[in-house]
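Possible regression after last week's pipeline update?

I re-ran a chain I had predicted before the update to compare outputs. Posting the input and the new output here so someone can diff against the archived version. Not blocking, just want to make sure nothing changed silently.
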Amino acid sequence: MKKKVSGIAAALLALSASVAFGAVKEGQFSISPVVGGYTFDHRQDLETSPVYGVRGGYNFTKNFGVEALFDYASTEQKKNGKGLQGDGISMYRYGGELLYHMWPDNKLVPYLAAGYAGLNFNDIKPKGAFDYGLGAKYFLNDNFALRADVRHIIFKNNDHNYNNLEYTLGAHVPFGGAAPAVQPVAQPLAPKTEPAKIVPPAPAANLSVSPSSIVKTPDAAATLSWSSRNADKCFIQPDIGQVGTQGSRSVSPSSDTTYQLTCSGEGGEATSSARLGVTLPPPPKPAPVVESAQKAAAAERFCNKPAVVAVHFDTDKANIKPKYTEDLNKLGEFLKDFPSSKGEIAGHADNVGSDKYNLKLSQRRADSVKSFIEQNFSIAPERITTKGYGETKPIASNKTTAGKAQNRRIETNFSCE
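New output (post-update):
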């Protein structure tokens, strides 16, 4: 029974798309004769029969209204039925319903209904019955419509709940009601004349770099120069940020870098870019062929024991100065002459700075030496490990400048097979 109600609801909603004149009016009365069918609960053992009725309605608003109802059906018991006595049974239903019109201004107006009524079989004591359902009114004009309804009727008798279904077609004759308000014709507004807009000039930007390429050394640098027009803000990226609308500055990136100048003003935004290439310095000249005595001396110095390499660092620095490459070349030649040797390069620092910072600084120094050896002597990276010891292993007093310089050192410890 609920599936039938759901199917009819879907059909009514699908048909309610056409919009016409105002169909349901506030303050309107109506009269509706209806005819249809009435199906009883199977436990009542009564045959489905025709039903006749009439409705009288009033609309409080376009959406909400009430209807008084009266229905009559004449049925009979099914064969071998166990219901009421006698062959002919008359059913009367009288009560009222609240209606909700979903789209009252459409030509087809679906609505929901719920109500309460008295239900009487062969003049036996009436029973109270709740009902709910839906319906639709199809307006042929402002004064006449066709209607269709379906209701699920629920009542209780002898401690049993019964479910009946009523479905009807009929005519709907409205009368009275408020006339639709006449909408005043809006006068067209005079077009607004807007003042001509002053378009600010577009900005321009120019960025250049000189030289366009540098060799990667501690003192290498290039100069960025820029200018702009019609701009009030300029930025250079990467790593520079906001700058004046024109100017220059020195840059020394560690690798190839493309700088971009972005300038903005009231007229928009402009960009310009310049690329600075960074090349590695040429490798040092190869050392002369080591004679057997020189090779023996290198083995005596570096094999199977710690050795201090004559390379020192400025405070808070890890870059290798050119004047210390001679002793590093000896270490590199040793590693080439003894290809099976493996070991550690240890970095050390003075006591300037915190313990944690000096550990990181000494690690950077050891890594810098390892990188120099690998790049200039083609030594396999897995042969060398590095470790920073910070200020934990001084070889001189940190109370003097000379002592601090000695403590900023590199030590090696390689094993030779």
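Follow-up from reviewer: compared with the archived run. Helices lie at 2-15, 292-302, 325-337, 355-377, 401-407. Marking as no regression found.
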